Structure formats: C-alpha cells, structure tokens
Amino acid sequence: MNEMQEDKHILEEAPLLFGMEKRLPEMPENYLDHLDEVILKRISIQENVGKIIGINPIFKWAAAAAIVCIVWFFSMNKEYISDVITEAFVEDLDLGTLTVDEVDDYLELDDDLMMEVFLDDVPMDEPSAEMEYLIHDDQWNDEMLIEL
Amino acid sequence: MSASELHIAKLIKERDLDEAFKLILSSQKSKLYLHLRRMLGNHDDTNDVLQETFIRIWKNLDKFEGKSSISTWVYRIATNAALTHLNKEKKKNHVPLKDVHHPAAHSTAPSPEVIQKKLQKAMELLPPKQKQVFVLRYYEEMSYEEMAELTGTSQGALKASYHHAVKKIEAELRED
Fold first, then answer.
1. Is the Cβ pair A136, B112 closer than 8 Å?
2. Half-sphere exposure (CA, 13 Å, Cβ side) for A78?
3. Would you say B169 and B122 are in contact if contact means Cβ atoms under 8 Å apart?
4. Confidence bin at B106 (pLDDT 50/70/90)
5. How far apart are alpha carbons B10 and A142 in whole angstroms?
6. Which end of chain B has fewer CB atoms < 10 Å from its terminal CB, N or C?
7. Is A17 exposed, middle or buried (CB count within 10 Å of its CB: 0-12, 13-18, 19+)?
8. Do B55 and A43 touch, CB atoms closer than 8 A?
9. Which residue in A16, A43, A46 is closest to B174 by CB distance?
10. pLDDT at A135 over 60
11. Mean pLDDT of chain B
12. Measured between alpha carbons, how far is A110 from A122 in angstroms, rounded to an integer?
C-alpha cells in the first residue's frame, strides 16, 4: 500500500477527525515580534555571565581549590567511604550479621545487580519496528528486553 | 535545502554565527511555535520550550555539519525539547489549569468548538512520541520519509504509531 492509499484507508476509519477543520493555534498579539528581542537578551546575559566567570581570577582560584579539596577528601577517606556505602547495602539487604568482606562477596553473586551491569554493557542492536512501535505507544519497558 | 537555508549554512561554515542565528530565528520561529504549540497544548509551555530551543540552537550552531537541512536540524532540537518537557510533565501528572476544557452542553450533534476541544483533550492523552507523530503527519502533513529522518525511527513504526493515534483520537471524539 503506498502512502496515498494508506491515507485513504485511515481517512475512512476516522471520519470525525478528518472531517473537521484544522485550526491554527491562537497566539498572543505581537508575540513573535518580541520573541527575537527576548531570546537575544537571554543569550547576551548568558554570555556576559560566562565572561565574568571566565576572566575573574578569584572564581578560577575558588573552583580549582574546591576540586583539590574534594579529591583530597576522597583519597584520604577512600576506605571509610567504601565502608559507608557497603554498610548501606548491608542495611538495605538485611545482611546485618555479615562482615564487610562477606557482603562484598554476596554483592558479586547477586543476580539482579549483575543483570543491571550486564544490560548496561550489552550494546543495543537497531530496534525492530515492533519495538519502536511499542516505545511510541508507551507500552515498552526494560523487562521486555530480558524476555527477548 | 532552499536558497535561504544554503545561505545560512554558508554563514555557519564561515563562522558568522551571529548573522546565521538571527536568520534562523526570523525564518523558523513561526513554524516552530505552531509545531510546539500543537505538541504542548498551551502558550506558556510553548513559550518556555521555544526559548529553550533557540538557546540550544545558539549553543550548538558551531557544531552544525550540514548533514541535514537547517529546518530538519532545528525541528529535531525543538521536538526533543518538547518531548523532554512532556515526559517531565507526565511524571508530575500535571494538567495546566488554563487549558482545561469544559465542553458546552449540546442536544444533538456537537458543535465544531466542542469537537476542537475534544481533539485537544484526546491529544493530551497520547504518549509523547505518538503525539509527535500525529502532529507531524496530521497537522504538518510531513511524509513518513521526512519524519523518519527527523525522528530516527523507521517508517514502518511511524505508520503504525500514526494509525494507532488516529484510532485513539477518533474513539475519543465519538465519546459523549
């Protein structure tokens, strides 16, 4: 079926829709006339702010100092932060009686977590027409990928 | 590409981005407003997304490579901005109060006004990507080939999506 024939077919199925007038949306008076000015002004403001941040040495120094502090904090407290995160997992999974090392081992064997990592790493082929349609119709969810 | 689009592409290549942007703004704003307004349903959201679209166009103008036409490129940016907005609104379950329609009472056949309002309501119920396809095909009469280039979706999926959207809307229009 070519496009003309398809449209005729759809037309016959939807007489109300295709029998009505296609109206232009209403727009406030002179809206488009002022739009250029508004947008150019916004761009100008953004650029000026960028210039201030760019050339002001205090901002640069502050940003560099903040980055150094953050990196230092994480490197000095790597083990502590790792323990906090692992303990959060322990609480979540109700594994309070296990040691941190045992929890690490548990996490490696957790199928759900492994599947999440696996799904992120698998490159997607081009989606099929069916899959694209389901996405368009809001029926798609990631569980279908596992089923496929 | 049209002559004016070729001229804009040339300006971009020559790095005269200010002039190129002003020409894009003046030539595309009306078409983009209508497209976004049909996607989003009300003026306020359209205004926000339209401004956001042109800011994105400005920021990415130096990256335009001329692989597609200027109008396809800006349409793509606008549509993505609209879809992002619709998906955000969907999560919030937000219905803009200004555009909530209250159909007038009617005894026999509904008036054109009532049908138009029903159409707006029916479109609001479509999933964002399906709404996009419906707007592009029904209102803007874009071919499936052009739509496929714009959206990166196959023609087959677009046809199925459009057909489904039409059926849903027709069903809504028939409801009392």
1. no
2. 4
3. yes
4. very low
5. 44
6. C
7. buried
8. yes
9. A16
10. yes
11. 87
12. 18
